[in-house]
Amino acid sequence: MPEVEAKAVPDDAYLLDVREVDEWRAGHAPAAAHIPLGDLQNRIGEVPQGRPVYVICRVGGRSAHATTWLNHVGWEAINVDGGMQSWAASGLPMVSETGQPPYVA
C-alpha cells in the first residue's frame, strides 16, 4: 500500500479525512474533505478519480483500510502515515469547528 508522511502531502492534494464527525470537528486539515470510513462505500461518488487521493485518519489504521479499498475499486489512493497525529506533530495547519483551538481527538 502506498504511504507518505504527512509533511510530504502536496499542498494541492485531494486529502480525504475518514475519521468520525467528533474527531473531524475537533481538528482537521483546512482543505480536507470529510467522509467517515463507515460512509465511504455509499459516498464514493464524492471522491474524484484521475488524481491521487491522500487518505488520513487519527493514526493511520482506518486510512490504511480506506486506501486499500479505494485502490481495489479503481482509485489511486495513498495512505498518510501516522494520520492527524503526525500532521499535528509536523506543525501542519489545522482548523476546528468547535470554537476551541484545533486538536487531534
TrEMBL record:
Full protein name: Sulfurtransferase
Domain of life the protein comes from: Bacteria
Species this chain originates from: Planotetraspora silvatica
Domain called Rhodanese: residue spans: 9-96
Pfam families: Rhodanese
